[in-house]
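User: I'm writing a tutorial on reading structure tokens. Could you give me a worked example: one chain, its sequence, then its tokens, then a sentence or two explaining what the tokens reveal?
Assistant: Sure. Here is the example chain.
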Amino acid sequence: MPELFVELFSEEIPARMQARAAEDLRRLLTEALAALSPEDVRTFHGPRRIALVAQVAGAVAAAATVERGPRLSAPEQALAGFLRKHGATRDDLRPDGDYWMLERISEAQPAASVIAAAMPPLLRQFPWPKSMRWGGTSDFTWVRPLRRIVCLLDGTVVPFALRDGDDDGHGLASGNLTEGHRFHAPGAFAVESCADWQAKLRTRYVVVDAGHRSEAIENDLGPLSDRHGVVWVPDAGLLDEVTGLVEWPVVRMGRIDAAYMDLPPEVMQVSMRVNQRYFAFREPQGGAAPWFAFVANIEPEDGGATMIAGNERVLRARFADARYFWDLDRSARLESRVPALDSVTFHARIGTQGARVVRLRRLAARIAPMVGADPALAERAALLCKADLTTGMVGEFPELQGVMGRYYALHDGEAPEVADAVRDHYAPKGPNEAPPAAPVSIAAALADKLDLLAGFFAIGERPTGSGDPYALRRAALGVIRIVRENGLRLSLDALIEAAAEGQPAPVPAADLRDFIVERLRVQMRAEGARHDVLAAIFKAAPDGDIVRLLARTDAVTAFLGTQDGRDLLAGHRRAANILRIEGRKDGPFEGAVEAGLLTEPAERVLAEVLAEIGPAALDLLAREDFAGAMAVLARLRAPLDAFFDQVTVNIGDNAALRRNRLFLLNGVRSTMDRIADFSQIEG
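And here are its predicted structure tokens:
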């Protein structure tokens, strides 16, 4: 198959948009050229270009198509509209029964013609998050000015232009010319294929593959770290961003002025990352190291001495700013900042951060005894947890909220447990962050997340399928992870009831509890666990104790993995199916089984076993012996199998006998459904 190669060369593309743009190019081109069956599609992206290579068919084969049109009796306007839609004439139609049929034969098209027709509209409609116009009067837009278009089919230019009527499209047209590094190898040169493009650009100081640039940066950071006896602090997000900023990555290390080494390491790292895109280092013992690394886009002639000195000078200025905020913030006690939260709006319909703090204090103190925390310390942590929002450092670096609160609390002489809770009450912020484990921190973190959920549920702001602007799903997952990973025996109902106090409107507690449990189900599905079993148990016996709910789920899951469990599940489905069908006639069948109507040995045995295991299983469930309850339930398997083998339920000549047997099957189903709604279980 011929090779299709496309490169779109422009001014600098924002790093955050490059990968998505390459994927959009893949998607759009694959859809537009579907008739050419693209294969082995690969994309490239970098600061000044996105590109794609694929194998495509050499032509679109000729084909005949037949499409039914309007009725023969349809108005002339309907027929004209159909012809106009398909670009056809009356001569293309033939009658077929009551309808007009449109028969068309498309001629074979060479791949170059198909590509040339597809590319201009694709580029004009390219979905950049933000686009711009530049120069002239063309309406064509791109993320930054588009300078060149390479489009080759087996090394031959596929000719097309972006002109659209009177719009000249900035005079852009396809060709075989691209450009190398802006400084090291300026000027245009011709390419013949994707491999030729990659090789020639490499000699012109451009690494086109983003993965290769990222590896080059990492490969340089490692030896530099070893040379200075320090450890590079991994930062995947920063690595991705820097990879998108350079075409020829050159890593160098600079030294941090000793005068700033007493700044908190988090302040140093965030300042370097946010302001300068620098990588941070730690000493082997864990403390901040007096080094930083930066990635340049040029190969310096002096080995980087001038470049390093310039970056060290810039960093001193940045750290001087951080020093100013650090010293200024510590001049006032954290507690003295709490009243200022009354002027910080959290949400127009929920109130201020100050109002939240009032609720958090009460809620954290209520939760504290449930998690083994000192209520006074939990309340103190809740009082201080939002105060750092008014500090200069957090104003400059919002990423440090909580972190700075801990430093300022320790500076003020607060108890270490309180200071740690101020930092940890936001945790976990994502799947890679551990939830708090200290009791006071747990109380503060649960209070923060439950108040957030209760507040937004109170005003009717819930996540939708398309969005979650207030991160309520993350808050619910945070509650779940704190409870699960600490093995906390808590009642969601009691927690939600406490969180509902003081909210701007009544909180739909049952809805909020179900929302949290649904997030638990989603989490289990992501883990590959039996989320359907959890849903079945919760429907049978709604439970706000997550630990107990999961233990019960584990027991039922283990039971379903046995032959008894699989057979009993099949029996439940058979019973439910019979009851559903017969129920349409004269159901429901919720009466008591009459012993005198049990004429067959198999149905008598089933009734006797059912009478024994029902109360026994419920007693074991109440004592949270879930494995024992499953063992008791397993005793139902053999009698139920025998019943289905030996007893005719729908006995037509004896209505009383039929209904009694249906009552017995309903008893089997209801007994099992007290443990879990087995109709919800998949597989």
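What the tokens reveal: The chain is about 50% helix and 15% strand. The chain has a mean pLDDT of 94.
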